[in-house]
C-alpha cells in the first residue's frame, strides 16, 4: 500500500525552522530596501549560499544538497514569507537547471550543475519572447547549425535574474517550419560573445529581482551545449514547467503567509472603539477565511510536490501536469486575495510603504502571471481533463 507523500516528514519541519531563522535574521531586514531601491541583494544571496539554501534541489552527485521537491517548496515558501524577490534565487536556480536534470547529457550536467550548487553561478530560464508569451512555441529565436557549433539569434524577454545569472537555458528554433517539434534547448553563458541584456524592466513588484531581455546577436556556441536531442526543446521546456510551477505556488504561499502573520499581529494591537479590532467578528471572519484559503492551497501544493518528486524518479508524469497547474493557480489566486485582505485589515496604514503588506500585495500579483498566466493554467488543466 502506498501512502501519500505530501505530509511533511520531521526533516521537512526541521528544515522549515532553519530557513525561517535565516529568513527572519538575514533576509527580512533587506526586503523593504530591495523593493524601494529596486536592487538585487547580494548580501541575501551570500546568506542563502552560506546556509546552502540557494539551490537546494541540485542532486548530491553534482555537489548539491539533494533536497526533494517538497523540501525545495518549503525553502522557497519560507524565503518568500520574508522577501518574495529573494525567493526567486532558489526558485529560478531550479527553473534554469531542471531542463538539464530532465534531458541533458551527463557531461553537461556535471559541468553546469556543480557551480550552481557551489553558489558560484546562478541559472536562468529563457523561453518567452516579446511576441511569444502564452504562445511560447511561436518563438522567433533561431539556432542555426554551422559545423560543430550553433549560431543563435533572437531576443528573449521577461527573463528573471537576467544579467546576474551566469548561465541560461535558451529555447530556440532549429527547424522553424516544424513548429513546437522544431525547437531545441541550449545552455548559453553570460560570457558568450554576442550575449547582452536589456535594461531592467520597471515592475509593480518583485523589484529586488532583475527582469531583463536576453539579447542573442550571432552567438556561436559548441553543438555539445544542446540539451537533449534536436527538436525536443519545447517538450523539455514544458516538462520543466510541470515541476517548477509548483515552486511558484510555494512562493505565493510564502507571500500570503507573511501577509497573514503580519495582519494577525496588527489586528491584536490596533485599538478602535475602545478595544483591539481583532474583537470584531467581521475581521475575525476575514482572518479565518484567509487562513483557510492558504491551508487549502498549501495542501494542494505539497501534494503536487510529492508527485513532482516521484516523476523525477521515473514514475509516470501522468497527473503532474494537472496538479502543478492547479497548485500554481490555486496558490497564486489565494495569495492575491489574502494579501489584498491584509492591506484591508491594516486600513490606511496598510496602503503605505511604512508596513510590508502593500509590498506583499504587489509581489503576489506576479504569481498569477509568470510561469504561465492563470488563464493558461486553466487551459492546461482543462486539456488534461478532457483529453
Ligand atoms: N510536458 C511535455 N511535453 C508536453 C507537455 C508537457 N507538460 N505539454 C505539451 N507537451 C508537448 C505536446 O505533446 C506536443 O508535442 P507533440 O506534438 O510531439 O505531441 C508539444 O509539446 C506541443 O504541445 P501543444 O500542442 O499542447 O502546445 P501549444 O502550443 O498548443 O500550447 C501551452 C502549449 C500549454 C499553451 C504552452 O505554450 C504554455 O504553457 N504556455 C505558457 C508559457 C509559459 O508558461 N511561459 C512561462 C515562461 S517562464 C517564466 O515565466 C519564468 C520566470 O520568469 C520566473
UniProtKB/TrEMBL annotation:
Residues 231-386 form the Acyl-CoA dehydrogenase/oxidase C-terminal domain. InterPro entries: Acyl-CoA_DH_CS, Acyl-CoA_Oxase/DH_mid-dom, Acyl-CoA_Oxase/DH_mid-dom_sf, AcylCo_DH-like_C, AcylCo_DH/oxidase_C, AcylCoA_DH/ox_N, AcylCoA_DH/ox_N_sf, AcylCoA_DH/oxidase_NM_dom_sf. Its cofactor is FAD. Keywords: FAD, Flavoprotein, Oxidoreductase. The keyword Magnesium does not apply. Residues 10-120 form the Acyl-CoA dehydrogenase/oxidase N-terminal domain. It comes from the Bacteria. SUPFAM superfamilies: Acyl-CoA dehydrogenase C-terminal domain-like, Acyl-CoA dehydrogenase NM domain-like. Pfam families: Acyl-CoA_dh_1, Acyl-CoA_dh_M, Acyl-CoA_dh_N. One of its GO terms (molecular function) is acyl-CoA dehydrogenase activity. Residues 125-219 form the Acyl-CoA oxidase/dehydrogenase middle domain. Belongs to the acyl-CoA dehydrogenase family. This is Acyl-CoA dehydrogenase family protein.
Amino acid at each position: 500500500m502506498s501512502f501519500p507523500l505530501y505530509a511533511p516528514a520531521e526533516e521537512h519541519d526541521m528544515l522549515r525552522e532553519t530557513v525561517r531563522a535565516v529568513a527572519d535574521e538575514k533576509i527580512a531586514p533587506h526586503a523593504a530596501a530591495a523593493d524601494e531601491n529596486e536592487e538585487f541583494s547580494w548580501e541575501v544571496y551570500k546568506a542563502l549560499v552560506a546556509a546552502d539554501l540557494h539551490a537546494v534541489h541540485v542532486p548530491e552527485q553534482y555537489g548539491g544538497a539533494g533536497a526533494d521537491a517538497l523540501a525545495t517548496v518549503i525553502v522557497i515558501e519560507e524565503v518568500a514569507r520574508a522577501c518574495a524577490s529573494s525567493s526567486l534565487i532558489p526558485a529560478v536556480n531550479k527553473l534554469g537547471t531542471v531542463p538539464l536534470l530532465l534531458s541533458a547529457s551527463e557531461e553537461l550536467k556535471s559541468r553546469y550543475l556543480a557551480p550552481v550548487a557551489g553558489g558560484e553561478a546562478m541559472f536562468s530560464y529563457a523561453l518567452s519572447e516579446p511576441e511569444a508569451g502564452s504562445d511560447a512555441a511561436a518563438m522567433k529565436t533561431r539556432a542555426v547549425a554551422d559545423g560543430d557549433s550553433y549560431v543563435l539569434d533572437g531576443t528573449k524577454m521577461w527573463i528573471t535574474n537576467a544579467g546576474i545569472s551566469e548561465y541560461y537555458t535558451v529555447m530556440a528554433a532549429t527547424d522553424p517550419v516544424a513548429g513546437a517539434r522544431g525547437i531545441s534547448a541550449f545552455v548559453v553563458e553570460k560570457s558568450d560573445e554576442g550575449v547582452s541584456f536589456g535594461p531592467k524592466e520597471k515592475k509593480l513588484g518583485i523589484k529586488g529581482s532583475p527582469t531583463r531581455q536576453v539579447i542573442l546577436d550571432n552567438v556561436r556556441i559548441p553543438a555539445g551545449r544542446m540539451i537533449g536531442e534536436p527538436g525536443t526543446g519545447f517538450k523539455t521546456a514544458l516538462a520543466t514547467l510541470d515541476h517548477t510551477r509548483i515552486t511558484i505556488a510555494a512562493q505565493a504561499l510564502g507571500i500570503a503567509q507573511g501577509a497573514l502573520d503580519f495582519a494577525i499581529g496588527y489586528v491584536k494591537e490596533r485599538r478602535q472603539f475602545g478595544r483591539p479590532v481583532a474583537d470584531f467578528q467581521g475581521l475575525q471572519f476575514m482572518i479565518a477565511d484567509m487562513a483557510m484559503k492558504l491551508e487549502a492551497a498549501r495542501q494542494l501544493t505539497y501534494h503536487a510536490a510529492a508527485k513532482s518528486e516521484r516523476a523525477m524518479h521515473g514514475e509516470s508524469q501522468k497527473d503532474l501536469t494537472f496538479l502543478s497547474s492547479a497548485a500554481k493557480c490555486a496558490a497564486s489566486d489565494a495569495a492575491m486575495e489574502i494579501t489584498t485582505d491584509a492591506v484591508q485589515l491594516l486600513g490606511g496604514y496598510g496602503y503605505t510603504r511604512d508596513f510590508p503588506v502593500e509590498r506583499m500585495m504587489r509581489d503576489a500579483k506576479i504569481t498569477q502571471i509568470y510561469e504561465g498566466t492563470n488563464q493558461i493554467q486553466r487551459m492546461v488543466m482543462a486539456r488534461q481533463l478532457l483529453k
